[in-house]
Amino acid sequence: MANAERTQPVLTARDAGLVGCAECGRVHPRGTQTCSFCGLALQSRDTASLQKVWAWLFAGMVVYIPANVYPMLRTSTFGNTQESTIVGGVIELMEHGSYGVALIVFVASVVIPISKFISIAYLAVRVQRGLPGTTTHFHLYEVVEFIGRWSMIDVFVVAILSALVQLDFVASINPGIAAVSFALSVAFTMISANSFDPRLIWDSHEGKPA
Amino acid sequence: MSEPTAAEMKVTPPRKSFWRNLSVVWLVPLLALAVSLGIAWQNFANRGTLIQISFGNASGVVAGETTIRYRDVVVGQVESLSFTEDLGRVIVTARVDNEVVPFMDADATFWVVRAEVSASGISGLSTVLSGVFIEGAWDNVPGEPLRDFVGSDTPPLTQPGRPGRRITLTTDDGTTISSGSPVLYRGVQVGRLETPRLSTDGRNVLVDAFIDAPHDVRLSQATRFWDTSGFEVSFGASGFSVDFDSISSLLSGGIEFDNLYDNGEPIGPGYVFTLFEDEEEARRNRLVRGPAQGVPFSILFDESVDGLEAGDDVTYQGLDVGVVTELRSRIVETPFGPELSLLVNVSIDPLRMGLPPETTPAETVEFFRFAVATGMRARLATESLLSSDLRVELVVLDDASTTNLLEIEGEAPRLPSIESNLSDFTATAEGVLERINALPIEEVMEQAISLMNAIETLARNDDLQRVPGSAIALLDDTRALVGSEAIQAIPAQIEDAVNDLRQMVADVRTGGAVDALNSALANLDEAMVGINEASKSAPALARNLTKLTEEDIPAVLAEIEGVAAATQELKLDELVASATKTLNAIEALIVDEAVQAIPAAVTAAITDVRQVIADVEEEGAVPALGSALRNLDRAMADISVASQDAPLLTQNLRAITETDIPALLTELEAVAKTANELELQALVDSATGTLTRVDALVGSPDAMEMPGTINDALNEMRLALAELREGGVVENLNATLQSASDAAGSVAASVEDLPQLTARLERLVAETEAVVASYGARSDFNTQTLSALREVQNAAKSISELARAIERSPNSLIFGR
């Protein structure tokens, strides 16, 4: 990729009359319907890619709302039940002085998902408008795709706590609706990012809208 | 570009319409949106309803934490706390579940549950850790939902919707009942008391109680409640006992109820039960509702009411009809100035006066108005003879002056009072005590002591102490004697003898001749024997006679000579003449034919008698007479024993001759003297007169007729004898003599048994002597006596049972059962 930036005009497979397999990377002459290596259907450009991206993105954003509105954890200590949302939990942690943990939770639960929404939407909009993509955009896409899975850290924490802290009356932690919503949101945005066909960025870069 | 252009026919055709290109992936966000919106809507819909509850204080209630619970299930949560405008109460704003909101109507109550330790137990312990919560209670019927509620500071004793029945009790004294006290039925808690309160007039204490279902069906007008608070200590013949129902009722009081009779009328709404002091009181008032239902009256007393207290009884003819409620003094205006009187307020139960249960107070007053007009009065009376406690007594006087029930507006109707007779009793009691005091008790005691000393001395006597043993021996011997065969045989023999005797007596009664003959012979024999004996004392008699003839008889003769001398001087000539004349008359009478006919009649009669005797001889009466005489002889031989008494007779005779005969002679002498002194002349004169009159009588024609009459009588007698001969008299005599012979034989036989009887009697006497001899030999007198007494007792018991049985069913006598 670094080379691609240096080589001025990039020869895409499409320009070369070839079509590459999205799965194994083997190129075939144009017109080949299925990959001879892995048997996957070959498609020079995924024309429905953007629709999928937008759809998943919307789904992710929709479920992200209850994930923040409803409580993530329901903590019962000696009969006192406390429900905390994501942001509420962060604030509480900060009040207790655990800034580090608060930062981690905040980044993982708030910054990253929202950044992903924005990044994916930005890329999708650019592709849709046919604006030429740069290498930076491509890096952005790769970062989004890579970091998406780490957003699940919150869900893991809730799952582990719920499983471990079940001491009945003394203390018990149960997941709230927000945990499910948040997990769904992360999953949806990951699918959204995966649905994005990065080749479209190249097309834009070539000034050939799909 | 110089590159060969590849065939581009496979290039993806340009985009078609937007909708045709639409991917199914879009369903995912739509679904997510729908789900999210659904959750949101559900959350909003389930958010609950805000309600406001006001409390006096909100101790322990925390906004956002304190929950609202119904039947210990969380149905809501406190959201905020605030004050009312005047800061008087705390308003708790809470959000409760929508599903319970329709039930939170006017009867819903809320209270704060805290840990509580009371006499009835510990409650709300879980709130120590979890913090307080607000408990709500409402019934199971949806009503008009409310948003604002007033919470109670204490838990309600009965939660709304709980099955059961709420009743009201009334009592005079609320000290022993407290909120939450148990209501027991046969010792099982079936309900609770609520907080006692005063009635509107302050006269009674009212307390509500809640009886849980299904026990509330036991409530009826027959139900009586009583207080079982505390404990009861009783000391009596059965010992010392402490009773209390339960620790809880001991500490906080409790009441118990029971139905005192069956089929009580069901209670209607507003029915008020009376709470009695104890079970005894409740059972005593099984037919009345108690003093709390009383109608107030007042009585004005002029005399001292010392000893009368509030709570004392008001009685009518000895029956409790009410209670004294208050005592106070009162100034009464009289024509002689103000005067202090004592006003007694009483409460009278119309039911106890016999008025129907539905009687209103006005009707009760009306009744008393009539009663007072007809002589009802109130007066003071003592509770008992020995106490100074007083009670108010309602009496009906026949001769009461006309008075009416005094009714003053705003006051209880006033019953007229009369003077009591308390002082009389006091004086009487005093007199009685004085008399008791005057009794000579000490002297009586001294006499009693001396009496007891004498008894003791007697009891210590040795002879007396030996008596029991002797008595035992006597009893033993007597028993042996009675058990002997000889004694057993006696009754039969006696019976035989008696039968014989009876036969003999019957025979003897039929034949008086035998009796006479017998007695004559017996007398003769006795006399002969007696003479025989008497002859032994004949010399002494002769001496006495000699003495008599030598000393006394000459004197008598001298006197007789005197008498004769006097007699010689009498006019005997006339007497002789008169006698001669009488004799002449008699001779004339005898010469009369009739008189001469008498001997012939007598001869005929004698002939008849001889004929009778001949007949008797012919009929064998003579042998019978002979046998009778033989038997008689045997009898006399036995009876001659009796003649052993003859010496005694002789001695008596001797005594008579020695003492009595001289006295007799002396008296004879005196008689002679007296005769000598008599006016014999007059006697002779009167004798002469008498003879003259006899002469006249004999010479009278009636006398001349007499011989004929005698002749007739003799003739009749002869006829009677003839009839006798012909009438079987001889046979009767013969039979009579035969019976006499049998009787004599029986007598002889019985006399033969006499020696045997005598021997037995001797043996009996001997045994009795032996008994007396063995008087002190035995020592088990008590046992024997006891057994004898026991038998006597059994016999008495049997008899008394028999008497009872007969008393119960006299028929048993007739029917033999």
The most extensive contact between chains is: A-B, 29 and 24 residues
Supply the number of helical segments of chain B: 21
Q: How much beta of chain B, percentage-wise?
A: 15-25%
CATH C-level category of the largest domain in chain A: Mainly Alpha
Mean pLDDT of chain A: 79
- What structural class results from the helix and strand content of chain A? mainly alpha
Order of helices and strands of chain A: HEEHEEHHHHEHH
Straight-line distance between termini of chain B: 156 Å
How many β strands of chain B by DSSP?
Answer: 26
Main pleated-sheet profile of chain A = 3 strands, antiparallel
**Uncertain spans of chain B, ≥5 residues at pLDDT below 50?**
772-779
Number of strands of chain A: 5
* Cα gyration radius of chain A (Å): 22 Å
> Spatial order of the strands in the main sheet of chain B?
5-8-2-3-4-1-9
> Major β-sheet of chain B, in short?
7 strands, mixed
Estimated helix fraction of chain B:
40-55%
Percent range for β-strand residues of chain A: 5-15%
Count of domains of chain B = 4
The helix-and-strand class of chain B reads alpha+beta
Please estimate the helix content of chain A: 55-70%
The CATH architecture of the largest domain in chain A comes to Up-down Bundle
Report on this structure.
The complex is a heterodimer of chains A (210) and B (817). Chain A is mostly helical. Chain A folds into two domains: 1-44; 46-206, Butyryl-CoA Dehydrogenase, subunit A, domain 3 (Up-down Bundle). Chain A is 57% helix and 10% strand. The two termini of chain A are 22 Å apart. Residues 1-7 of chain A have low confidence and may be disordered. In chain B, the strands form five sheets. In chain B, strands 5-8-2-3-4-1-9 form a seven-stranded mixed beta sheet, with no helix packed on it. A seven-stranded mixed beta barrel of chain B has the order 10-14-12-11-18-15-19. Chain B has 21 helices and 26 strands. The termini of chain B are far apart. Chain B is α+β, with helices and mostly antiparallel strands and 817 residues long. Chain B folds into four domains: 46-161, no CATH class; 168-423, no CATH class; 441-482, no CATH class; 492-770, no CATH class. In chain B, helix 11 (512-536) crosses helix 16. The interface between A and B is medium-sized, with 29 and 24 residues.
